Structure formats: C-alpha cells, structure tokens
Amino acid sequence: MAPRCDAVIMSRIEAPRDETTSNLTDRLLAGLPADAVLVDPDVTASYANDMASFCPAGTPAVVVLPRTVEQVQHVMRTATELRVPVVPQGARTGLSGGANATDGCIVLSLTKMDRVLEISPVDRIAVVEPGVVNATLSRAVEEHGLSYPPDPSSWEMCTIGGNIGTASGGLCCVKYGVTAEYVLGLDVVLADGRLMSTGRRTAKGVAGYDLTRLFVGSEGSLGIVVRAVLALKPRPPQQLVLAAEFGSAAAACEAVCRIMAGGHVPSLLELMDRTTVKAVNELTRMGLPESTEALLLAAFDTPDPAADLAAVGELCEAAGATQVVPADDAAESELLLQARRSSLVALEAVKGTTMIDDVCVPRSRLGDLIEGVERIAAKHGLTIGVVAHAGDGNTHPTVCFDAQDPDECRRARESFDEIMGLGLELGGTITGEHGVGVLKKEWLAREIGPVGVEMQRAVKDVFDPLGILNPGKLF
Amino acid sequence: MAPRCDAVIMSRIEAPRDETTSNLTDRLLAGLPADAVLVDPDVTASYANDMASFCPAGTPAVVVLPRTVEQVQHVMRTATELRVPVVPQGARTGLSGGANATDGCIVLSLTKMDRVLEISPVDRIAVVEPGVVNATLSRAVEEHGLSYPPDPSSWEMCTIGGNIGTASGGLCCVKYGVTAEYVLGLDVVLADGRLMSTGRRTAKGVAGYDLTRLFVGSEGSLGIVVRAVLALKPRPPQQLVLAAEFGSAAAACEAVCRIMAGGHVPSLLELMDRTTVKAVNELTRMGLPESTEALLLAAFDTPDPAADLAAVGELCEAAGATQVVPADDAAESELLLQARRSSLVALEAVKGTTMIDDVCVPRSRLGDLIEGVERIAAKHGLTIGVVAHAGDGNTHPTVCFDAQDPDECRRARESFDEIMGLGLELGGTITGEHGVGVLKKEWLAREIGPVGVEMQRAVKDVFDPLGILNPGKLF
Q: Are B455 and A364 an interchain contact pair (Cβ–Cβ within 8 Å)?
C-alpha cells in the first residue's frame, strides 16, 4: 500500500486551514520541500488509518514525507517547539491501529526514505532506510545469496520501519525468529530532534543498555527510526511442504507437539482449523475433504527436506492424521501453501468483515486455545476461524461479522477480547506479532501488570517527556 | 567458582563492626536466615572481585546469600531504606570488574538460588533461578534432547544470572548467537524491592516495550534477576572440526571472509594469531609448525559435517592455507580444539599476567584489527596474542605483561586502550561479550556518544532513582 494520493500536493493558498495549522505548516516548510508537506484534507484524511478494525482515528493536521534524516529532525524539532503530536507511519498495513492518526497531529510518513544503503555478504548485514519495502529488501539481498527472513503476510507492501515499529513476525518465525532478532543497530531521531545511534554493525556487542531492542516494537512511541542495520542469513535451499489432514484440531495440535518435541526444525508449521478449511474450500473450490477438521502444513528448507518431511509425516500419522501429502517439488509446495495464503481472504468472505486476533500461547497449550475459541464462537453465535503459526503457538483467531449489524459488532468485539483473556489464562500473550496499538491497550495493562505499566510509562517519559510521539497508543 | 568461604558464617558478636554496618546487618537479618548473612571481613573480602585485571574494588559491608525471591526483595527494600549500594554477583568469573564490590556495599550473591525449575521439550524452554551454573543447565537440558547454546569459556563455573547480566557469548555464537537471544522472560526484583515480570514464556510476543532485553547486559544496574525463562534448541549433532594453518594472519582472515560470504554456517570459527600459536606450542608442546602465522579452526554440526568441512577446507586452501587438517571423528575434533582451549593459559604463561580485551569488529575488518594489534604491540614493546571468535569478528587481544613492573603495567593498559580505539575506528565495539563494568566505562561514552550516554543514564534513573544498584559500573 503505497501512500495514497501523495501526488496531490497541498496548495498553501487554496486549502482551508485554521491559524494553528497554518503556523505549523509554515514552520514545517522552513525545513522541508513543498512537495513533502501535504495539507489538503482529502489527502491527509487518506493517511488517517492503518488496516485495523474497531480502532478510532483522528484527523491529521498535516502529512509530511521527508527524504532525509535532517528533514525528520526538522519535523521533530518543530513538533517539540509547537507541542504537536507526531504519528509515524510506514505502509499502514498494521493491524492494531498503531499508525492511526490523532486529531491535529503531524503524520510522519517514512515511505519516501526508501533506499537500501548497503548490502555486505561478508558481514551479512544490510543498511536501510525505514521506508524500504520488505519485499524490495528481500529481493535485493537474494541477489547476493542472502536472505532477510522476517516475512509478515503484508511483505509485498509493508516497510522495514513499520516492521521494526511493530516487531513483526511471519511464517518463517518458527525457524528464523522475528524482526527483532535481525535488528543490530538503529539511527533514531528523538522527540526533540536530536539524532541517536544505538547498537552496532558487528555480529556481537554488549556496550551499554540494549536500546536497539527497546525501540523495536515500540510502535513509534519512543523515537523515529531513520536508518537500520539489519542482520542477514545465507539464502536457504528452496523449502518443501507437506500437508496433513486431521479429524480433529486436538490431533493436529498433538502432531505439532510431537514434531517440536522430536527436535525437528521446520521452516514453516502452520495450522488451519475446521472453520478456516471450510471457508477456504468455499472460496477457492480447492476440494479439501469435508471431513477435514484441521489442516497442518509443515515445510523444511534443509539439505534433505524430503527426509525431514517423511519423518514429520510419520509423526502426523502417529498423532492421527487422516491423510499426509508431501510435495515433490517447489511447484507442488506452492500449491499446498495456497490454502494457507487464502485463509484470511476466505474468512473475510464469510461475513464481509473480520477482526484478526494475535494471541500467542506456549505451543503445548495450542489445543486448549483452539478448543476455547470454538467455545467462545458458539457462545456468541459467531464464526471464528483459527489460522495459526502453530510452531510458535501464535494464533490468529479471526472473528467474522457483519459490520452493518451493531449487535454482531458488539459480540465480535466481546469475543475478540475473550480470546485475549483465554490466551493470558493459558500462559500466553495478547499479541505475538501485531502489536498493541490502539486495539489492545486496555489489555496490555492486564498482561504486564501495574508495576510493568509504571516502568514502561517511565521509560516512555525518558524518550518523550512531552508526550508528542504517537500518543494514545500502547498505554 | 563457587562462593568462597561461605561456610564461614558470621558471628554477630565476634566480628568487629561499626554502627552503620551493625544496623544494616540487623535489618538484613530480620528477613534472612543467619547463614545467609556474612560479615566476617576475611570472608566478605573474598567477594570483592571478579576476574578482571586493573579494576579497583571496594570493601563490602556485608555479603548476603538469599535463597528465595522474598529474601531478595527484603534485601532490596533494606538497601533502599538505608540507601546502601548493592552489588549483585554470580560466580564472579566476569572480566570487566562488573561484579566488583564498592565500599560499604551489600554484596548480593545469587549463587544459592540455583534451581532448574522447569524444562519443557515441547515448548523448548527452561525456567531457572539465576544461580544455576551454565554447565548444570546445559547438561540438564541435554537429557531431554535439547541444548542451551550460550557457552562462555567459564561455562563450567559461571551462572545463568551472570550470563544474563553481561549478555555473555562464547564459541557457539557464530551459529547460535549470544545469551540475549535465549532470554524470553525475566522476574526482576526492582531497586525498591518490588517484583516485576518481563517478557513471556511463548515463542513470540510483542506486548509493550522489550524490558527483558533491556535487563540483559545491564550488569546488575537496573534490577536483580531472580528467575529467567530461557529458549532452548534441539540438541545438534556432534560437531566435526577442521584446522587450517596459514602463512599470514591476513590469509586466515581472507579465508574467514570467503567462508562467511560463501553462505556457510559453521558452529565454530576461531582464529589464533602467530603469538598465540607460539605460546600454545611452548606451553603444550603440540608441535605446530613454527612457520604457522595463524591457525583457523572451523566446525560444523550439520547433518553432513564432513562435506561442509571439505568445502571450507577448499576455501582455506584457495585463501592460502599451508595445511588443512579435517578431523575424522569427535575425538580428533576434541584434540584440534585443545590448541584453542589452552590459548589463554598459554598467553598467561608468557609474562605471568594478562589483560584480555574484547573488541568486536565487522568480520570484513578482522585482518585490519589483527594487523593493528601487531603494530600496537611493537610500539609498546609488548607481547599481545590475538584469539578471535573469527566468525563473529569478536577478538580477544590478550596483553601479556609483568604485573611487578610498573612501566610494563602502564604500557599494558595503554595498549589495551589503543586496541579499543582501533576497534571503534574499524566500525566495531569496545566489547563483544565481556561487558563494560569498571574496566571500560570511560570507553562506553566514546562508543555511544553524549546523546546515548544521556538517554542510557536516564533509563538507569527510571529503575534505580537512588543510584544504589551496582554504582560506578557502566557509566
């Protein structure tokens, strides 16, 4: 999702603005080119939201699109002087409202800072600006025989800066971990416009507190990332996929436990529950048997993936799989993954709207989570499909509802919350990879407790004493 | 190194104490058993230092050895009320003075909190108390087919709490990363005695700021870790080692670059320079050829390590190796590793005393670092051997000197500092895995700059407003 309508440059004369906005715009224009400052309300309104449902968004006063670190510093100095809130944005593909505008804010879109500055195969690092699209980086490093593993579903659109802001995950995490594990160092513009470097460009380093990791996942509330040093991995062999059908979600979860306890390291281990399988069947006519109550997809990118798939296939059968289908090659693998890829679209087709939850539980509790979600769906009379990064215990229970039906909306929100409560009960977290944003801020306090909230707020105050950085998010 | 002399319990009547210490001891004893409070000066003096050279240490007022979280909370509440500094300690194997006592402090030794509370093969986690020795945990998880990779040289003695405090590394890091990457969640007693939980026990989680990582490597300056949830890996196959001899350090570094740029993932990639090879030869009579100017050790724990070693052996030869010796089995591998294992002892034998530096540079600059260290050694007329976790660019230039010779001591310290300066010039860090402690605190400011120092100090103030947690370290 590239920034919409940014070709429509503000007209300082024609756009109706009040005095405050006018002053703000004039100050911004003192350090930014005219085409980097948008004030046309029709244009700025298009920057108000990310992709989350049920998240209020305000009306930005102005949208800025800086191209240099100095321009970002100018924006932050201006914001500090005028006490104007700043909402940093990447591609706005987030699912928690973390990039939603607040009234009168400066939307600081980093999408124009989109250069890959360096790729080093010896040091296995890339240095990038925050607006680089995940897929652009992934393809650029591939040419050097390298891989940047983090692969959120939105990887064709989302930016590295957004990935860092939300510490995003993806399908690869079961083997390769999340974004946080690939961020070695950052250049950050602080709230007052000063530039701070954190971390390093070396493989190791323990000089001082790990502020790099503090910024990763901080949802733009501590500073503006303007440059990142990212760790890369050697490009792995093409993965080979296996699909296993089960007569119950419990059996599929048992297979997940056996695979992980057996010491296997799949490059992907995804689960779709009955509801999701049915929705996918209806949308895509893939012809999955109606008796399939859960579908497990496992992949390996090891030197001998067929051998690994065979071993995992046996574990699936021992756990009760009704059918095990290993792919023979990349094309067949891709076909098997289609079911997973179309899950969210298929669930959206059920009722027109979805709310995607993001509860992560210890993988030993995955079965309990899915069972509990079925109970919650029945209680509220709703369809809730579970798609899960099963190897990580990270589930996306997806509530399907009719947004035109107020009662259904209420029940959707209630069930969404009950699922988070269930996740906490099971020793899990309210968010595995999507972040807190606006959507889950009441729940953050329940997860981390009053002492945790107090200390986190105090850390926020250190970096943002005036409270101008993405206010109303997280806490 | 278990706490020394802790069988000698204080005698409250016999030990000479001033009034302040007496009051402190009485207050501590209100919440701790008598055998957990040591005040005999001969005993407490034995807790004054870790293993760093050139680091001043003060005289502790008292040493406490709590066994429960509640007892740690009592210690911290007491310290806060009486404004007494607290120095947390593990096994005191650190190399930067980070665990050195300050005058009148409470030494808080966590060595008695040494239980492995849980090991879960399905969730691939262990839950431990801070005093668990690294080797104890490693062996305990091995029985479950699992591995806890971080392996500092002192792994037979050092504690997990100490590892967390210094974010320690080891030989395995080139493939498996450092301690920080294995810490999922922490229970921390804050300066005022309150208990805070950070992080999670799930594979993923992004709820709020990553305070877990903030504590890892914070050298006991932000709070007292009393429990940790650690990530585990499946136990890898036994590694197979290759040794390659080179006619120059530059050629060995070139081999390192080719191996890493070639996409190989060794489980170990260590380099010893000419000085180290010579010292090892002299100590152990291993019979390495005198013509060897650098020795490279590479290992693989892959499904087919022999094939990987063959490929890496070819790269070594292409880079100019004079001899390549791949091991056939585990026993031969162990033999090859002996040279590396005896390096530090061998360098210590040169002059009686060593100062071990810990500079990490981008691995593409490894050759420049080693060349620069040779220059610094020549300038100061000193022997400096370089042992390096070459795959990480993490070098341990080890300055050999006669501690009885004041001029040599001065030159040792100067060359030690010049090596850090060189590391920074080459885009590296002053510490890859040993931490800042007392030894490098002047240098931390040079690495992270004034804004970094200001923000780090402010973060410290959030968690330790009275400045009682390990004062005089880091900053």
A: no
- Decide if A283 contacts A345 (C-beta within 8 A): yes
Is a pLDDT exceeding 80 seen at residue B337? yes
pLDDT at position A11: 32
pLDDT at B138: 98
**Structure-block tokens of residue A154:** 């939105």
Determine phi and psi for B26, rounding to 5 degrees. -60, -45
Tens digit of each residue's pLDDT (9 = 90 or more) over A167-203: 999 899 999 999 999 999 999 999 999 999 999 999 9
Residues B441 and B475: beta-carbon distance below 8 Å: yes
Chain A residues whose beta carbon lies within 8 Å of the beta carbon of residue B303: 302-304
Give per-residue pLDDT as tens, B152-197: 999 999 999 999 999 999 899 999 999 999 999 999 999 999 999 9
Contact B362 A125 (CB under 8 A): yes
Is the Cβ–Cβ distance between B133 and B114 less than 8 Å?
A: yes
Q: For domain A240-425, which CATH number applies: 1.10.287.1770, 3.40.50.2000, 3.40.462.10, 2.60.120.560?
A: 3.40.462.10
Shortest distance, CA A411 to any CA of chain B (angstroms): 24
The Cα A473–Cα B4 span in angstroms is: 50
SS3 A399: strand
pLDDT digits (tens, 9 = 90+) for B292-313: 999 999 999 999 999 999 999 9
Q: Are the C-beta atoms of residues B160 and B132 closer than 8 Å to each other?
A: yes
Classify residue B180 by its DSSP letter: G
Q: Please state which CATH class domain B19-109 belongs to.
A: alpha beta
Query: What CATH architecture is A1-236?
Result: 2-Layer Sandwich (3.30)
Pair A412, A382: CB distance under 8 Å:
yes
> CB distance B207–A120 less than 8 Å?
no
